Each structure stands twice: as C-alpha cells, then as structure tokens.
Amino acid sequence: MPQQLRVLQSLWAMERRRADAAEWPLQTQLEMIREAGFAGAGVRFIDPAFATEATDFLRAHDMIWQAQCYPTSVDDLKPVLELVARLGADHVNLQPNVRPRRLEDCIPLLEGWRRLSEQSGVAVHVETHRDRMTTDLYFMLQLLDCFPDLRLTADISHYLVGREFAWPVDEENHRMMHRVLDNAWGIHGRIASREQVQISLGFPQHQGWVELFMGWWEYAIRSWRKRAGPDAVLTFLCELGPPPYAITGPDGAELSDRWEDALALKAMIEALWRRIEHQDPAGSSLKTL
Fold first, then answer.
1. 89 and 44 in contact (C-beta within 8 Å)?
2. Burial bucket for residue 140 (CB in 10 Å: 0-12, 13-18, 19+)
3. Which of 79, 155, 181, 271 has the least C-beta neighbours within 10 A?
4. What InterPro entries does the annotation carry (predicted)?
C-alpha cells in the first residue's frame, strides 16, 4: 500500500460556543465529520467516557482517531496509554503541559514520555503549542538539538504568532520552520497571521497567509514522504478552534463559518497531496523552499 494522507477533524473545533444556539450533540458532530468525508477525528483522551463514545462511533464507521492529552508529568501519560490500549488510536498527540525555562528540566520529561511510548508500542507525537514546553521556536530548536529524532505534531500557527515574523518571511525564519517540519510526523492545521492565531481562509486580505501556510505544509509533506515508510499514514488534523481562537464581532458572532473553512482546508490539503503524489509518486525528493 502506498503512503497515505488522512485528513481528520478536531472535535474541539466542533464546539460552537454561541449564546444564541445550542451545542451540537457529540453524535451530531461525529455524523457531520463522517458525512463530510473526513477520515477521522481528534479525540480528547482525558475523559474515558467521552473517548469511549467518540471512538465507538469512529470504529463502527471504519474511521481513525488521534488521542489528545496534556500531561504535566511523565506518569500523567500512563492512564492515556492504558486507555489507548483499550480503545486504540492512530497515535497519541501530546501537548507537554509544563513550562520549564531550562532545557535540563525538559530532558527527563521527554525521556520519560519516549520510554513509555516505546514500552507501550504506541506512537507519541509532541505538539508544538503556545503556553507549553514547546511554546517558543528558539527553545524548540534547542530541544531538537537534544533530541534530533523527536517526533512532533507541527502546529506552526503558534510560531508565526509567537515570533511575529516580519512580512515577507525571510529565509532564516523559513529555515527555522523547516527544521521543525523535518521532525513532523503529523500536522495540525490552521492558518495564522503575524498577529492572530486563526484567520479565515476566504477573506481576500488573508490570501498571502494562506499561500505561506500552504508552502510550509507542502514542505512538511514532502519531508515526511522522504522519511516515512512506503505504507505509512500522515494525519492532518483540521483544528479551527472556537472563540476566542475564532475572531468575533461586537455581537459575539464569528466573522466567518468555521465549519465551511474546515471543509475548504480539507479540500486544499487533499489537492496538495494529490499534486505532490503525482509529481513524486515514490516520495523520493525533498523540495527546498
């Protein structure tokens, strides 16, 4: 079987948070995701009942899921892996919910999580995210110096906002982002600007940022295809978050339709994958942007 892309939808991103409308029930959310053609979902594995209900549906419809968790210690990962042993998962997405200021304090945590991953046989990807161990791009690069083979989930929206790159993005900043993407074994997808972590895909003034992220994601996919096995699966999680991630007007209503944006993002990534696959069916080349 050739390498595959599986586009997932975040269940967190299905939250509406509207004063004038009820939340969609979980089963409604899952039906929407299935009917839209997503391959699966991102599911929080910190609530066993929620995870069980969500994965029961996904399994019944031959869909996949990634297990989201937010450990504050090495041992915090153990119950998540035990739940994965029972419910399954494509992989664990770990947001390191700690904020060390020194690399020395990060090393035992990463070593411990990697050890548990190896012992359990479950792939664990460490997510790049603000207000986590991985919050800062420069610090993340130092972590990669310590752990050159660290498997990441790349959510690069956080680094564009965190560093507020000048526009146009210069080659040095591209190189730093590429180094992170060269360790990406999964991608979380949203489009940011220098000042806002999530902007609508469709607004005319945002098209430069859309092109920037599509270029970074193209680099990430090409890099992954070179590193991954011939039958490996790459997951791309559409993660357009509810307010306050989503920008709202004075009435509290969102300025764009997040669900429609998620569908557009899914289509864009699938088209990008097809183009790359057509150009490089064996995954043998790595494009340098």
1. no
2. buried
3. 271
4. Xyl_isomerase-like_sf
Tokens standing for 218? 């193209």
pTM as predicted: 0.95
- 223 three-class SS: helix
The total number of structural domains in the chain stands at 1
Question: What is the chain's pLDDT, residue by residue, as a tens digit (289 residues)?
Answer: 899 999 999 999 999 998 888 999 999 999 999 999 999 999 999 999 999 999 999 999 999 999 999 999 999 999 999 999 999 999 999 999 999 999 999 999 999 999 999 999 999 999 999 999 999 999 999 999 999 999 999 999 999 999 999 999 999 999 999 999 999 999 999 999 999 999 999 999 999 999 999 999 999 999 999 999 999 999 999 999 999 999 999 999 999 999 999 999 999 999 999 999 999 876 654 443 3
Write out the E strands in 36-160.
40-44, 64-69, 91-94, 124-127, 152-154
Q: Is 266 within the bounds of a domain?
A: yes
Residue 76 lies in a domain: yes
Q: Would residue 151 count as lying in a domain?
A: yes
The Cβ of residue 187 has, within 10 Å, a number of other Cβ atoms equal to 26
**Residue 137 token pair:** 């791009």
Rounded Cα distance between 223 and 181, Å, is 8
Closest to 111 in 3D by CA, of 149, 55, 141: 149
| CATH number of the domain enclosing 35 | 3.20.20.150
55 alpha carbon, distance to own chain's centre:
19
What phi-psi label fits residue 264: left (phi over 0), alpha (psi between -120 and 50 degrees) or beta? alpha
Cα gap 273→277, rounded to integer Å: 6
Q: What is the DSSP letter of 71?
A: -
